[in-house]
Amino acid sequence: MTTRIGEVLVNGCDWNEFSVTGWRDMLGVVPQNVRIFSGTLVDNIRLGLAIDPQEAMRKCEELGLSGFFDTLPGGYLTLVGEGGAALSGGQQQLVGLARALVRDPQVLLLDEPTSAMDSTTAQQAMDMLDRYRKDCIAIVASHSAAFLPRADRVYRIEQGTFRPDFTPLDRLRPVGS
Questions:
Q1: pTM to 2 decimals?
Q2: Strand (E) or helix (H) holding 69
Q3: Sequence-separated contacts (24+) of 44-50 with Cβ below 8 Å
């Protein structure tokens, strides 16, 4: 990608200097619809990473995710089935969060990360993300107003263009106040 005006810098370096592998190492991505593969829960969490299952479970515990996964019949060794047949939509999203976070990304991209979670689980997941994002940049795409008070900056997409919006707290005020 080329810029028309200005430059795009990542950690002070022109972003075109990064290789595809460099970008993949830097990013953690949580899509709205997380792809789950046949196998155990822990294998789905460490997908594509050269870490052993114990290390993945330890990282999940540090992140505060163990409470979610320990409730499954086999814990981290639960067979989840192709497409996540043994998991609810919210549990699948938690697998996606765990998969992204065990990578220790510098940039975390989240697309509607709590849309399939019940309100209690969503609140716990957002609290966990608040703790984690102190160490990385988090970019969240969401229709949920629950993320607004947690944001440093809010942008909206209007007719295909990013537009700076109000401060997060201004965005929560009723129109005309």
A1: 0.81
A2: helix 66-69
A3: 44/80, 44/95, 44/99, 45/76, 45/95, 45/98, 45/99, 45/102, 46/99, 46/102, 47/99, 49/102, 49/103
Which of helix, strand or coil describes residue 177? coil
* Residue range 22-49, pLDDT digits in tens: 888 889 999 999 999 999 999 999 998 9
Residue 129, H or E segment: helix 119-132
Nearest by Cα to 109 from 128, 133, 125:
133
Domain architecture of the chain: domains with CATH: 23-143 (3.40.50.300)
Residue type for position 27: L
Question: In angstroms, rounded to a whole number, what is the distance separating the alpha carbons of residues 95 and 168?
Answer: 28
